[in-house]
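Supplementary Data S3. Sequence and structure tokens for construct A.
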Amino acid sequence: MAGLRSLLELPDNTGAVPLNGALTTLRVFNVSYNNVNNGGLCCAWTVPTNVNWVAVEVWGGGGSGGGGQTCIGGKPGGAGSYARKIFEVTASDIWTVCAAGTTCCNCGCTGLPSFFCKSGGTGMCASGGAAGCIVQGGMCGPGSCIPIRTCVQGAICGATMGICGVQGFAKWNIGVREGYMQMGPGAPYAHTTGQWGPSGWISECGNSISPTPTWPGTGGFAAQHCNCAAVLCGAKGNQGLVQLTFMASA
């Protein structure tokens, strides 16, 4: 059976890995994770006495959903990326831990990143999810804030392993309002499966973007409506999460 050091991929050649202490898990996030205007959470973590490694996992925030206009469909935002790494640390060192908030605008915008770092440039990050968009003829239309994107170079930085979140999904039959469906994907390793949005279009001039995307890192839904000339914006993607796991020697 593999030892704890092997399972955690700890980059320590000294063999001085504590195996008989108490394992601690610390999660950093804003407790109001169903608030659409969630600002995330940043804090300073001081390495406890007798701790010389920390396993870090980060989830970026979800992208916001695209707008909708006069029965033109939109794609929801994509899921935030996931990354992990084991860091060697020194007691009393101070690290900055930041869990992403919800997106800063809600008309198809990229989600915000989560990260773990300290002065001098050491650290890691996971990007937010892809932006949703208004779709015209199967492509992102000119009414979108920015084009939809897949995971790009630099979306995950400083990690031993990372997985990019997938784009949002939508389908419909042209001319059939009841045929519209969309899915906001869940983030990798977040124990969520994503969510299906409401089916069909609403007939009045207003958004139909419930339910609230699941936490952490799920993409926000696109607006869906008919009989309205204005472009209505989609929902914001949900916030991110940072998890620290460490063990102090006995």
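Construct B, processed identically:
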Amino acid sequence: MKVRRLSVMTVAVLSCATLVMSETAQAQTRRPSDVLALGSTAKVTNVIDGDTIEVSQNGNTFLVNYLGVTTPGLDACYGPQAKQANAALVQGKTVIIEQDTTDFNASGTAPRYVYLVDGRMVNEELLKVGQAVASTQLTDAKYQASLNALAAQAQQAKKGGWARCGWQAEAPVKDANGCLALTVADLDQRVEKPSILGALKDGDCVTIAGTTEDGAAWSGQFIYHPAGSTVTQSAGFVRWKDGFVLIERNPEDVSQLVAHVTQYRQQVREVVFNGQVIKVPSRERVLFQAVLPLERDPGDASVVRLPVTNTWIARDLGNGQYQALVDFFEYKTGDLKLP
């Protein structure tokens, strides 16, 4: 059975194979009724450029700037095309505008996610066809990981301005300590290695922030060790394309590594049929959390893997040294609460 995510604080970095995947899945299956619950309706009265529109709402007219994306100015390469693409989507239409954190910025513009009534997000549509690039605003980044992924796909496919204007991907954001600043969603992608990690080398510091499944804010600082590097195993997260799992030394046996695993188990309910009680699987699934020792390969005891999965994560080199077989984020400081 597959580990769905890792656990610890219900996992922050562990929403693995879920945040970006779930956002992408939501985008693909988003229905008109879904977006109506996300924000309020407005009428587009003017298209200013590729990422700014004028809207009328409740008798008030104001500018809306698309969150998470940016387009060239009208006098720059692909600026006119971006405006044209934007106008084709929204000109004169009723849209739904969703606020993230900021209501109005200092210039009086409202940063928003903008949806068409058919369920499509305009911010996403512009990225898909290479009419815009991703632009992170750390205080308003609810969907940034999925927007970044769409931009990367358009860049790889050389769509729109990526081919015509030689656009470059957004530069990595660093915090006050010079550490690469990531969100849980940046890493929570079903790929071998998120492109943003290409800016890192072994030993670089990483600050990871996010929100756990129960809504609690979470952050921490880690040291990044890519697959193939030699590490002294300690508390941290291992990452592979299907997930994140917290591992640490067993407090009762420091020579042993344990993993915090979470999986869904199907509930069983009892029904009475012809006077007999029969147990049948229900549709309900509950989270089961456990701390399990890492397993060793029967054919090569130096190789360890995660319990409940076939993911080989490290080779034991002896004397407390391991060769990482997947990316490892060594925990240094932050809000990570080890049991």
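The longest strand covers residues 253-273. DSSP finds seven helices and 21 strands in the chain.
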